[in-house]
Amino acid sequence: MILEPQKKNPFMTIWNIISIPLGVIGFLSLSDALITFHENIHQIIVSYHAIVYPVFKFIFAWLWFEVPRHIFDYLFLGILFASSERKVWGFRSITENRLKDIGLHLCFFLFSTLFWPFISFQMIYETLRTNSDGLFTELTKGPNPIHVKYMRRDQDILVFRYLGAVILIFILILILNYTYLIKAQQ
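^ thats the sequence. predicted structure below, dont judge the formating
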């Protein structure tokens, strides 16, 4: 069986010729929007600094040295992560003494705030090594499969969903704050 060469559609040939200059014109018009977008992002970051940094400067005012600003960002992300983690795990009574429970939860919150990258990597690792049913994937393979269920998989995923929602809401608040400031200046 011999295949005949297919004839090219003339409209496709014309489109291939015209699409290149039209794409270039589109990217050129987009570059102007990217320049103003860069300025908008810069103003949103300035708004973030104006909202968050004074709080941390007040908290660390008792120190005799100035705390670097990137520490504020790290702690802010840690607070977002720890609050999302507390939202998922809730406030469970550990001891009979209510005051001791509050102290322990405060210690866990501070620990989660300071070491949030390590805790999040551990959560990601535990989530990735299980399938959607929560079974460890490496144990279910082989000649003698063992089915061990990781019970906290759904909670780990929920922490990241809450964290994403909190960050999205915070970004929306910053954008609304920024647009309100622009309207107030005009």
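Helices lie at 10-59, 69-89, 98-114, 116-128, 153-185.
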